[in-house]
Structure formats: structure tokens, C-alpha cells
Amino acid sequence: MKEGYELIYQRPKTLTDTRMHYCPGCFHSTMHKLMMEVVEEMDLQENTIGVCPVGCSVFAYEYMNIDVQEAAHGRAAAVATGIKRIHPDKLVFSYQGDGDLAAIGTAETIHACNRGENFTFIFINNGIYGMTGGQMAPTTLVGQKTSTSPYGREPAKVGLPLKMAEIVSRFGRVAYVERVSCNTAANARKAKKAVRKAFEYQLQKLGTTFIEVASNCPSQWKCTPEESLDWIKDHVLPYFPLGVFKEPEKKEK
Amino acid sequence: MGEIKLMKGNEALAEAAIRAGMQAYFGYPITPQSEVIEYLAREEPKHNYVLLQAESEVAAVNMMYGAGGAGGRVLTTTSSPGFSLMQEGVSYMTCTEIPGVFANIVRGGPGLGTIQPSQGDYFQAVKGGGHGDYHVIVLVPNSVQEMADHVFLAFELADKYRIPALILSDGAIGQMMEKLELPDPVPYKPNKPWATTGKTKDRERNILTSLYIKSEDMEIKNIHLQKKFREIEANEVRFDEYKTEDAEVIITSYGLTSRVAKKAVDIGREQGIKLGLFRPITVWPFPKGRIAELASRDDIRFFISIEMSAGQMVEDIQLNVCGKKPVHFYGRMGGIVPTPQEILDTVQSHLKE
Amino acid sequence: MPQKGYVEISIEGCKGCNLCVISCPTDCLVLNTSDTNSFGLHYATLADEDKCIACLNCAVVCPDAAITVYRKIKSA
Predict the structure, then answer these.
(1) CATH 3.40.640.10 correct for A27-246
(2) In a mutagenesis test of the A interface, which of B22, B25, B28, B63 is the best target, namely the one with the most A β-carbons within 10 Å?
(3) DSSP percent split of chain C into helix, strand, coil, nearest 5
(4) Please, what's the b/e burial string for A209-241 (b: 16 or more CB within 10 A of its CB; e: otherwise)?
């Protein structure tokens, strides 16, 4: 460090030194970092248990320096339920992608939310199956081309993209729902604040907390990381608007 | 002397689980085992276990995975179609080495089948059941007493070997009432340093995963699991014998049909036929060694396996008799229990061969 | 000497996604396209330290937590 300067930001200790395998510009990495910063700032490393999904973030446990259980595809919410029921005072989160949370694991998601399971969902919605090679997701936008919707998603054939934040905010025992993104520095700061609020509400035992991240996938969207930010702004956010859908002591949107 | 009660098999299992220090039960109702969750729901206010009716068997087994991985002593019970749904989770738990106790109160299949008792899930139970190379410990009670005793044993073995343990019973034993002596409660003292309880400063983080993306690592994991399976085979085989000392015919049977077979042994002996019963109490690990010993005995003419299936355990008998003696089979399917007379008639027809 | 602050970017930790560069309000970061790290990737670098205002934008958006930020200590 140069003399006369102070350190104001460094990589959180709650991230391991392992280089993340994600593609350049992937918000999985950004969210891992922001979540682990919150765990560090709240001094929760000893009291946090994470659940990782199947999908690109299947290796999330390599990077998060906390206890983690790797769930079967779609079952993270059930696994998190089991952990939280045994350790009601620990911080538990379920980190899931759109295929995991909103397709194969929809039943587990809906019922965990309906029970008001007191853990935090971090839902990475990038509208595509990244790891398996860019297939259509339940949240793929209308007209968006993927390897299994090569002519664009057709609602008449496969329905409309699922708005999970909106859906789960209707459950009485869900405490806090916000959709965030990391497409700008301002939004990334809001994403981190949302994670912090979710963790705080969880520790206050207010019910299910659910953070949906309007995320990206430069590799499977076939664009540069920079272009993926434009796609989010121009196409994703108009359909998946950012904001708080539910919050304790606040009126529902 | 423990408490003497008259109970249904399913209720005995539930009460035993409470006494064995069960911390969490996750399950989904299915006939003929719903009495377990109903009993636990009634008793819940008196104890401090977690009871959760899951949205499906798929969710239930994954709640087991989570809670068991977090160090809890966990139980689920189900019946055949439900256990099929759980198989993915059982495979994950076996590879991740998360202990947990399952009970499959078997009903007739395949498909939706019947709610009557069956032993048609033997292959699924002892040959793996889900994907990948694995086994779970399989205990086969033949009485309400054993429905209770095996819960204690299953929890103990599951924790000792970090493996799922399965109580493979059937609709008749689950539903019937018998007198039993309830085991005294044993306080559960968890010693699971591998569990996900939060990374403290004095240890590395605990990761529970069954993902080994590099083939070399996956093989190392498999070698480790196989070594554990061999250790269990060496130490945990359990079986029971009845009048086998001088028997010329060995009936092999487990669970409900072993009781019918025992009656057949007594009736047969009254008629001068030297019958004996070999009853596995663990069907995985299978009592391979003892079957092989019996097969080498000169005075034994043949084996006959009696099952409520199309013939499943009989394959393990054949494997271990290894051609030294004829191995016959008699079974009923679809929820029908064979009678002692049917068994004797079959034995007599083979004696004439 | 930097005026308000400066950043250090881990060459090996950077994947060259350029998100920090476009988030910088003072355009003091650039993607070094004339060199690569051991992964064969271009990496971002602080080109004009006089312009850095230690606003943290780059560190906030960096997916790989490869950026460390320092701020000038205000004299009493």
C-alpha cells in the first residue's frame, strides 16, 4: 500500500482463493462475491450453511468459504428446509438458477415459500440453461433464441416466462421479495443491500426471503459481457422489472 | 424390562424412533404406512423433534439429505411407489455419506399396484435402487417387535457407517397388531464433525457433495465406498435359523413369509419331513457365508425360497449355494400371502423329484 | 502520485470482461489488449491513477473480486 492511503475494499475472506470457473462477466461470480461480503460484514461465517444447486453454480462451494451442501437438481429448497429445521438459528440460503428453481424444482420452491421456510433464496435468473449448453429456461424471454428454441420462444407452444418474484410474493408467509440486477454499479450495490436485508430478516425469523437476480449469460446469449448488460436493460428488465415486491412493514407492490 | 404394549407395526416403528432420539421426520402419506406420520403428529407436542409433511416423497428425501447432512438423526417412511420416487435422493445420500433411516412398508406392484403386502421391492432395496454403484443397509423385520428394534439398529448402523439404512417391511407387518416390549429411550449424542453446522475457526469448511467431475476423483470416491460396503458385509450380517441343525430341506424366507414358513416347518416335521428355516435379518449385507456353509452340508437335499414376489431373494440364494444344491422357489404376487399348506405341497412335490 | 485513490487489479484474477472499465465514471481503467495473463486473457489495468476517485464502482461490479481499492487519507 502506498503511504498516505487506506485500504477501503478488498476481496472478502469469506471467498476462497480458488479462481471461479465462471465465464468472464458472469453475474454468478458477482453474486457469490456480494453474498460473501455480506456474510463477512455481518460476521456470520461460523453460522452460515449454504445449499448449492445443479447448473453452472454447481461448484459454488469451491468459492464460498462456508459449510455447504450440494443439492440434487431442483431440490435445493427441500435441502435448505431440512438444514434450517435442524438449525433454526443459523443462516441458511439456497442458491439456485432458473432451471433449478423454476422448472424441475418448482414444487419445492412453491411449497417452501408457502410454508414460509425461514431461509433465503438467491435466485439467479439468466433466462437460459448455461451449463448444459444454452437450452430454453422457464424464464427465457418471448422470442429469445436458445438451442431448444432456435426460432425464438413461442408462448403458444411453451407458455410465457415465469415471473417467480411476482409469484412468490403472493404467499402469506413470504416476508421479503426483491428483484435486483448487477448490470450497473448502482444496481450491484442495491443487490448487495437486498442480500443484507434478506439475511437480516431471516435472522429475525420473519419468514421466507427471496432475492431474484436478473442475471446474464454472455456465453450462451452469444454476446460480450458488455453486450449482455445492454440485453438486460433493453429486454430483460422491461419484462422482469427490478424492485421490492414485498417487505415487512411495507405495503405490497 | 421395557414397557409392554399392543401396537400396530407402523406405530411401534414410530414410537421406537422417538425413543431412539429421532430429531426430524419428513414424509408424505401413502398407504399402508401413513400411521407412522399420524402417530408422530399426535405425539409431537410431548417431544421436540421436527415433523414435516412434505409436498412429495422427492421433497421428503431431500429434506432428509439436508437435515441429515446438518447432523440430525432423521427418519422417513413410505411405501413402494413413494420409495421409487426417493431413489435419487438415496443415491445422493449414499455417495455424500449422509446417514438417515428409511422404512419401505412394501405394497404390491409394479405401478400403482395394490395396497396389500408384498416383497416385490427386494431387488430395489438390495441391489442399489437408484443410479450408481451403491448399497444401503437393509433390515427385514418379521414382527411388530422387530419393527421397533430395527429402528434402533438402523439409526446406530446408519451413523456408524455414514450410510442410509432401510427397514424393508410390508403392509401386513405395518398394519397388524402384536404385543411388544418397547425399547427404553436412548439419548442421542451426535458426534458428526463432518456435518454442515457452520464453519468454525478451528476447522476447514465442511462440504457435502456427490459431485466428482474428474473421473479419477470419482473412482477414488467409489473405491472408498466399496471398501466401506465390504466392511459392512464383514461385520453386520444378521440372520436367524429354526431347526436347521438336522434339516434336509432349507426354507429361506424373510419378513412376513418367514413366519408362514416357520409354521410350515412345524407342520412338516409333524408329518416327518425334516424342514428347517433360514431367515435373513439383513438382506444387505446378505448372509452369503452361512448360505454357502449350509449348501456344503451333505444332509441337505435342496433349498426353497418362499417370497411374496415373482422370485427375487431366490437369486441371492442361488448365487451363494453356487450350484451345490438345487434351489427352488415358491411365491405369490399381488398382495397374496402364501399359506403353510401351499409351502408344504411345493416342498413335497420337489421331494418326489 | 494518485490524487484521491487508486486500485490494484489482480492480473491473474482478472478475466478481461471489461465491466469495471465501463463502470468507471472517470475513465481511468483500460483493458490491456497488448498483454495476456497465464490464462490467455487480457486484463484490466489502472491507466491514469490521477483520475481515480476511489468510488468503488469497479470493485462492486468486478465479478471476480480481483480489484483492491485504496483511498487517500484526508489530512487532519
Answers:
(1) no
(2) B63
(3) 15, 25, 60
(4) bbbbbbbbbbbbbebebeebbebbeebbbeebe
Taking contacts as CB-CB distances below 8 angstroms, the residues of chain A near B210 are 70
| Model confidence pLDDT, tens digit, residues A173-188 | 999 999 999 999 999 9
**Rounded CA gap, B294 and B240, in Å?**
13
Q: For chain A, which residues make up each domain, given as ranges?
A: 27-246
- C76 pLDDT exceeds 70? no
CATH of the domain at C37: 3.30.70.20
Distance CA B225, CA B96 (A): 10
Q: Across chain C, what does the average pLDDT equal? A: 95
CB contact under 8 A, A2 and C62: no
Q: Test C64 with A4 for CB contact under 8 angstroms.
A: no
Q: Say what the ipTM of the complex is.
A: 0.95
CA distance C10 to chain A (A): 11
Q: Is the CB of residue C20 less than 8 Å away from at least one CB of chain A?
A: no
What is the domain count for chain C? 1
**Quick check: A122 pLDDT over 80?**
yes
Point out which residues pair with A193 in neighbouring strands: none
Quote the minimal CA–CA distance from A64 to chain B in Å: 9
